[in-house]
Amino acid sequence: MAWIYLLLAAALEIAMGLALKLGQGWTRVLPSALAIAAALASIYLLALALRALPIGTAYAIWTGIGTVGLVAIGVFWFGESLTWSRVGFLTLAIVGIAGLRFSGGDAA
């Protein structure tokens, strides 16, 4: 169950980042409110996941999934550039996330 909490927390981290972008610097009320709600829910779920998962692994995976997800949204939704160096570094992030997940010492 801890991994489900962590994945849901990461999805909400992505939603928060998207809402922050759409909130245009806290000038739009609905996206700003959604960003706050998503942030609070994300941290709550992360805290639940930390009951069973190592903090370093869980936090790295939470932020890593959020980072990769928001880069993808930036590229496909907002037309941000996707250079070979960005692809390479995102690949490193994904490999690192997977490595942390499947390396020894994790609960559940």
UniProtKB/TrEMBL annotation:
InterPro entries: EmrE-like, Small_drug/metabolite_transptr, Small_multidrug_res. Pfam families: Multi_Drug_Res (PF00893). One of its GO terms (biological process) is xenobiotic detoxification by transmembrane export across the plasma membrane. Belongs to the drug/metabolite transporter (DMT) superfamily. Small multidrug resistance (SMR) (TC 2.A.7.1) family. Gdx/SugE subfamily. The lineage of its organism: Bacteria, Pseudomonadati, Pseudomonadota, Betaproteobacteria, Burkholderiales. It comes from Pandoraea oxalativorans. GO terms for cellular component: plasma membrane. The keyword Transmembrane applies. The chain crosses the membrane at residues 29-50, 57-78, 84-102. It is a multi-pass membrane protein. GO terms for molecular function: transmembrane transporter activity. Keywords: Cell membrane, Membrane, Transmembrane, Transmembrane helix, Transport. This is Guanidinium exporter. It is found in: Cell membrane.
